[in-house]
UniProtKB/TrEMBL annotation:
Species this chain originates from: Streptomyces chrestomyceticus
InterPro entries reported in the protein's UniProt record: J_dom_sf
Protein name: J domain-containing protein
Length: 264
């Protein structure tokens, strides 16, 4: 084989390495985005489900400190009670209190149910289904911006993937299917042109840098409080949420009983 043939074979192998690195990066990005959506949705459910319990516990701790201070009259207990009261959030104004509870047509059903002591509908779960995950992964593999061959194509793919991510984050399977049909009906992506070795090496370096950046994002998600909770029960995070809720309810009952003893 001559020098030209050897050089062409070497460039061909390099092009294959770049393509493999691109696919590996896309799979990594899919995994990171999937986990990010899971963390975001679980965080929302965690706040909606457990937020009022945490607020109740904080208020009970303050009332307990105030009851102890009233009973002992000790300056140190009084100081602790004042600090505890200052540390909790003040009651919101009426406008803030009804934000998200009242619309142009009056109270939302959830607010009316609470005021009438009726069961409140649990927070909506927006965790994507398995089918939505499948459609999402397939779309990203086809339309990822890193597969673009020029800036115009990258811009088109960037805008499209933003819509794909939004639909996936909302768990909207129908929207994802519509986006899949839209992508199939669009212009056919251009075939890769085997570039010079320098261009391919630069591409490999960029891909490596991109992977390092994603690794940092993934580590931050995994190390976050919500990420750590999901890792404790990856197959059924909702069950973990219920377990925490039961523990908080028990804590509330214990503090309420203690406060009753103090003020009784």
């Amino acid at each position: 084989m001559g020098q030209e043939g050897a050089g062409g074979a070497s460039t061909g192998r390099l092009a294959q390495a770049v393509e493999a690195a691109e696919q590996a990066l896309i799979e990594f990005e899919i995994a990171v985005e999937t986990f990010r959506v899971e963390v975001e949705n679980f965080s929302r459910l965690h706040h909606q489900r457990l937020g009022p319990m945490y607020a109740r516990l904080d208020e009970l701790d303050v009332q307990i400190a105030e009851a102890i201070a009233a009973r002992t009259g000790d300056p140190e207990d009084v100081r602790k009670a004042r600090e505890a009261r200052a540390s909790v959030l003040p009651m919101p104004d009426v406008e803030e209190l009804f934000h998200g509870w009242m619309g142009s047509e009056g109270l939302y059903p959830e607010a009316e149910a609470m005021l009438n002591e009726q069961p409140v509908r649990p927070p909506q779960k927006v965790r994507p289904s398995e089918e939505a995950r499948r459609v999402y992964r397939d779309l990203v593999r086809k339309a990822h911006p890193d597969l673009a061959r020029d800036e115009a194509e990258r811009g088109r793919r960037d805008a499209f993937i933003m819509r794909v991510n939004a639909a996936y984050g909302a768990g909207d399977e129908a929207a994802l299917r519509e986006l899949a049909r839209e992508w199939e009906a669009g212009p056919v992506p251009r075939e890769r042109r085997t570039g010079e070795s320098e261009e391919l090496y630069a591409r490999l370096e960029w891909l490596a840098e991109r992977k390092e950046m994603l690794a940092v994002i993934a580590a931050e998600l995994e190390d976050s409080a919500i990420g750590a909770m999901i890792k404790m029960a990856p197959e059924d995070p909702d069950a973990l949420l219920e377990e925490i809720a039961e523990k908080l309810l028990a804590d509330v009952a214990e503090r309420e009983a203690y406060l009753a003893q103090l003020v009784g």
